[in-house]
Recover the amino acids of this structure.
């Protein structure tokens, strides 16, 4: 039987054109070094069309990778739409990567063109010789002081010398690659993940669901997640789809900057990693801000202690929404909305549910499996490797032999270890490689870390495996104490608290105190660096 | 460049399996003649699998049309999932159609099997000989008194004799037909519209958007729209997708039944045509119900006067959400959410915006065109034929030569006449064929009707074109007065009110009072019947 639905492709071109028409007057604000830049959706639309003419003039072809090495800003958003709608592949480069990593990634993707903020040009300039011969650069002057960078093209000049006519967008199949991002893994070279128009479109719809992020036209969304990081968690696209007000954070993501922006711009929704919200929470103990417009903070990337969720809700009236995803999952795959029936839970249990990573969005499936790929029960206790499949999950890395290990039977092997409870709430317990394997049993580091970080005198904490003559591995707690705290007292308090809540064999064999935990390029605790630092640590026997 | 998103199909099978797993304990309540039947998502899931085994046993093949002639109930919902997930095409039969129409439709669709409520069996029995030879029947005993209908199979027996094992669902392409529905057009034979899995899936996501219907797990949704009417406006699928509580109305849709159900079941969301909400509004003037749980009523199918929206909001705290769609559009294509900036409008203007039919949902495009297919401006004044295209719009009628007239350049010609304002809010002014063409100019009947119906002593009103020696056509107002009202006074008041608000040449040449307006099988005013009744009406010259 023939089909009878229009073959109407789900593309970013549709999002761009529809939203610019329906929400022409909506505002996009960007924190620039010289102050806040403001313009409207209609302005972005005109400039995106000019950009497309520019790409054509520069000889960019369908399927070409076009890099960006940029901070969050309206011009980055123009590239977010201009490159994919043109038929190119937007390749966001992580500006925190080492030079070696950038060289690897740009060569691997074979970028033809890179748009670079003038403030970041020095990085590229240094590695220029190691990049593909035919790779050219367009410099975005993002600082008043910046001089035009040598012989490179200037972004504003590219736009202003382009035609004023609307660009005739190509008709794209919805499976056309729209963007790509390399994983921020801590082992080996980064792997390239490609996002298709369809994937990003469906992901944007899912974030707009009431039980997704609930994004809507009435929102003013603070984009604090770096746009070089998995499409900025897909939020810029979803924001534009809904006609929401958009605010781009500046380069500094200190809690005080974020708090001030929320207050000044009357932000209703924002998202970020736990470290940021722990920092903001500390700030709010001493500084007063009016954050009353903020309805929700979405948090992912690592665990957030239930106590913090509770404190935000009770003390500041701010609701946390947890979730989980990876570069490979566009990136949001699960979101934690509390089912109505769970409102009746005792308060402590309710916050414990809220601290889980949520249920799979429609279009996404999750499962946990054992080492033999047998599916494990959703009992909230059994830990297994989390696997995921669905409508916006990648099915392979770009030109990378490591694809084979990462996929099985149509499922993506996340490398995360999780439990799923009978209600369907998934909780990440650890990365497979961060698990402490003691005497053949797994000890999940994340639960211990959360418990330690809930102590008021602890700033950050991580658990790492240290080798042990009898048990193969045992857990070591690495803790950053609050300034001026006596570590001997803190050590005793942490030990007592853990002993009261966890099996004896889970308890860390020792606690060391350091000044700060090393972080990855996207702000997560760098466990790999920690493990190396404490590789030879001698545990008390 | 190769694509890199999983080819994960958007199907009803995904919705069924995901929701039954995540929301197993959620409740589905059905008003049956003997009382309210209640069970859980998990119960539905088990029975749907049994149903699939039953379909296989009956020899149903992929692509076969399987009819339903049923009231709203949990068993109809089982068929909503069982037939499409099996790979069949659910063909919902409108139980208000004439026997001739049913005979035409069932033969045209070539239904292999029809599931029929025992209370509706007499209708089918009478026309049985005129139906396809190989069409069989399964009777759903929906009344205690009903005896097993002759030699037909019994639905519960079909299920109870089926295997307990989970059925192995086929892997379906997302463009596979899932359901079909014949239009309720008033001219010629009904036309068959086919819904694909993809179309219904995307439609369900759109209704779940905060700026769609905002459906979510916390909702309890009263399904009052008949399920034989364009998938019950797609709401049962969207409700299940979200894990919402579902309440199926009984056979009577009188305002008092609806009000009682909302109160008893703590309904948060419902939908229906304007006549129902006008009736409920009248009822609420004299009867008290606790409708405090109801957050939103979605209303489409015809215009709803702004005054009614205002009165509901002010007197009963109930928010109306207007929209537009057709059988051909799955059916919801536009929804009216008020942009934040419009909160500042003067109250009267705000309600006038709320009474428009809204903006196209993501994935949908609208335009208005003149007779030469030139696109007309979005100025809120210029009227043109509304055309629509997008991801859940049909691209043709099933085996029907009338497809050609209905589509142009990839756009569906709706036959509605509309304006679109600069903000993108569309407003249906009329059906092309209901327009009054006076001296070469269009007079939109809907605006006049709304104005007349806003009079407190008017129950219903319609404008029809009557032929006129000089102006070709002139408008006649057909009005149903409230009981006991003096029509001569009412006539003068209506004339004065219209004269104060509309151009002189729009004013009806006469007003006639009747007891009730004829309705179509889905509850809209039957203008065709009215036009025939007043075809020879002599207007005062």
């Amino acid at each position: 039987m023939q089909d009878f639905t229009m073959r109407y492709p789900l593309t970013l071109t549709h999002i761009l054109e529809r939203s610019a028409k329906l929400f022409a007057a909506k505002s996009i604000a960007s924190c620039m070094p010289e102050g806040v830049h403001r313009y409207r959706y209609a302005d972005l639309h005109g400039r995106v069309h000019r950009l497309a003419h520019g790409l054509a003039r520069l000889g960019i072809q369908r399927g070409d990778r076009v890099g960006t090495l940029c901070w969050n800003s309206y011009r980055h958003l123009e590239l977010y739409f201009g490159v994919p709608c043109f038929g190119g592949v937007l390749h966001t480069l992580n500006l925190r990567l080492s030079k070696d990593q950038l060289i690897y990634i740009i060569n691997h993707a074979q970028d033809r063109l890179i748009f670079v903020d003038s403030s970041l040009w020095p990085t590229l300039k240094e590695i220029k010789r190691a990049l593909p011969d035919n790779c050219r650069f367009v410099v975005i002057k993002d600082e008043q002081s910046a001089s035009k960078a040598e012989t490179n093209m200037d972004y504003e000049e590219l736009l202003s010398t382009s035609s004023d006519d609307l660009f005739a967008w190509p008709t794209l199949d919805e499976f056309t690659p729209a963007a790509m991002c390399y994983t921020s893994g801590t082992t080996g070279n980064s792997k390239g993940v490609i996002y298709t128009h369809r994937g990003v479109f469906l992901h944007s719809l899912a974030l707009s669901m009431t039980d997704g992020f609930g994004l809507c036209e009435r929102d003013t969304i603070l984009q604090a997640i770096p746009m070089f990081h998995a499409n900025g968690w897909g939020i810029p696209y979803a924001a534009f789809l809904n006609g929401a007000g958009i605010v781009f954070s500046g380069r500094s993501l200190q809690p005080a900057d974020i708090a001030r922006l929320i207050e000044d711009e009357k932000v209703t929704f924002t998202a970020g990693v736990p470290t940021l919200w722990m920092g903001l929470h500390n700030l709010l103990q001493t500084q007063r801000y009016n954050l009353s417009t903020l309805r929700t903070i979405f948090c992912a990337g690592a665990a957030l202690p239930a106590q913090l969720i509770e404190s935000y809700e009770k003390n500041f009236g701010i609701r946390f929404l947890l979730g989980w995803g990876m570069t490979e999952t566009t990136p949001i795959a699960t979101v934690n909305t509390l089912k109505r029936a769970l409102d009746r839970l005792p308060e402590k249990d309710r916050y414990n549910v809220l601290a889980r990573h949520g249920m799979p969005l429609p279009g996404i499936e999750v499962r946990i499996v054992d080492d033999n790929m047998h599916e494990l029960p959703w009992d909230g206790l059994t830990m297994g490797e989390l696997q995921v499949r669905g409508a916006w999950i990648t099915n392979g890395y770009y030109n990378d032999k490591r694809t084979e290990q990462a996929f099985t039977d149509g499922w993506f092997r996340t490398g995360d270890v999780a439990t799923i409870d009978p209600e369907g709430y998934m909780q990440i317990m650890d990365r497979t490689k961060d698990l402490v394997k003691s005497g053949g049993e797994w000890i999940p580091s994340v639960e211990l870390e959360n418990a330690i970080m809930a102590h008021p005198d602890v700033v950050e904490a991580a658990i790492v495996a240290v080798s042990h003559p009898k048990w193969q591995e045992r857990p070591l707690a690495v803790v950053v104490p609050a300034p001026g705290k006596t570590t001997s007292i803190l050590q005793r308090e942490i030990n007592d608290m853990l002993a009261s809540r966890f099996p004896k064999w889970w308890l860390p064999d020792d606690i060391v105190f350091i000044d700060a935990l090393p972080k990855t390029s996207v702000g997560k605790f760098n466990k790999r660096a920690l493990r190396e630092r404490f590789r030879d640590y001698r545990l008390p026997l």
